UniProtKB/TrEMBL annotation:
Keywords: Oxidoreductase. Belongs to the short-chain dehydrogenases/reductases (SDR) family. Pfam families: adh_short (PF00106). This is SDR family oxidoreductase. SUPFAM superfamilies: NAD(P)-binding Rossmann-fold domains.
Length: 269
C-alpha cells in the first residue's frame, strides 16, 4: 500500500469540493474526484496538476456506481482510501407549498440518500486504513436550526448531521472518524442558482439583500483539513453558522423568535 494518503471527494468539479481537493493536493495527498460534471472535474485536475488526481464521473444516487467509483479510485491510489468527503449536494429553497414533487425527491435523493450510499460503500475501504481514516460529510448551517423557506434542504442537512453522529459511535471500534462541516453562505457557484423553479432570483441576491455574509470557500477547505485531523465532531464555517450554533445551544427561544420574525432565506453552503 502506497504511503501517499488518498482522499476521495464527491462534488469535486466545483465549489467546496474543488477547494478541498486543491487544499489536500497542495499538502501531498492523492486526490480522487467524483461528480456528474466531467468538464468541472477536468478543470479541477488541471488546477491540481502533477498527476496527483483521479476523476470518476458518476451519480451519487446510484448505489452500484459508488462501488465502481471507489474501487477504481482505490486502485489508482495504490490500494488505499484514507478520507472520503460526502460533499455532493444541491440547494432547494422556497416555501414548502411551492416546491414540486420532483424538486423534493431530487434534493432528498442527492443530499441524503447519496450520503448514506457513500458511507456504506466507503466503509470497507476506510477499515483498511484505520485507525485515523475519516468520513467527512458536508452538512450545513441549515442542519443546526430549521430555516423558514428551506424546509426540505434543512431536513436533508439535519439528516447528514444525524448520520455523522450515528457513525461516530458505530465506527468507533474500527478507529474510523466520522465528521461533518456546517458551512453557512459560501462563495461557490451554488449561490448563482435560483432556490427553486418558481423563482428566477439567485440565492446570492437573496443573501445579500438580507444583509448576510458570504464566506470565502478557502475557509471551508481549511476547516475540512482541521476536521479530518482533529477531534471535533461538527465544524461550523462562517459567521451565520457560528451564530446559529451559539443561539441554538444557549438561547433557543430567542433564536426561535428571531427566525419567526426574520423569515431568513435558504441557508446554503
Amino acid at each position: 500500500m502506497t504511503q501517499k494518503k488518498a482522499i476521495f471527494i464527491t462534488g469535486g468539479g466545483s465549489g467546496i469540493g474543488r477547494a478541498i481537493a486543491l487544499y489536500f493536493a497542495e499538502r501531498g495527498w492523492f486526490v480522487g474526484l467524483g461528480d456528474v460534471d466531467a468538464a468541472g472535474m477536468k478543470e479541477t485536475e488541471r488546477l491540481i496538476g502533477n498527476g496527483f488526481c483521479y476523476s470518476h464521473k458518476f451519480d451519487v444516487r446510484e448505489r452500484a456506481a459508488w462501488d465502481e467509483a471507489l474501487g477504481a479510485f482505490a486502485t489508482a491510489a495504490g490500494g488505499r482510501i484514507d478520507v472520503m468527503v460526502n460533499n455532493a449536494g444541491i440547494p432547494l429553497g422556497g416555501v414548502l407549498a411551492d416546491n414540486t414533487v420532483g424538486e423534493i425527491e431530487r434534493c432528498l435523493d442527492i443530499n441524503l440518500k447519496g450520503v448514506l450510499f457513500g458511507a456504506q460503500a466507503v466503509y470497507p475501504h476506510l477499515q483498511k486504513t484505520a485507525p485515523g481514516s475519516c468520513l467527512l460529510n458536508t452538512s450545513s448551517a441549515a442542519g443546526i436550526y430549521g430555516t423558514a423557506g428551506s424546509s426540505v434542504y434543512s431536513a436533508t442537512k439535519f439528516g447528514v448531521r444525524a448520520i455523522t453522529e450515528a457513525l461516530d459511535g458505530e465506527w468507533a471500534e474500527d478507529g474510523i472518524k466520522s465528521r461533518s462541516l456546517m458551512p453557512s453562505f459560501i462563495d461557490t457557484p451554488l449561490l448563482k442558482h435560483a432556490p427553486n423553479a418558481a423563482t428566477n432570483q439567485a440565492i446570492e441576491t437573496i443573501v445579500r439583500d438580507a444583509g448576510l455574509e458570504i464566506t470565502p470557500v478557502l475557509e471551508v477547505a481549511q476547516a475540512a483539513w482541521d476536521a479530518v485531523h482533529g477531534e471535533k465532531l461538527h465544524t461550523t464555517v462562517g459567521k451565520t453558522a457560528k451564530q446559529l450554533a451559539f443561539g441554538s445551544r444557549w438561547m433557543p427561544e430567542r433564536l426561535r423568535r428571531q427566525m419567526k420574525n426574520s423569515r431568513r432565506p435558504l441557508v446554503a453552503r
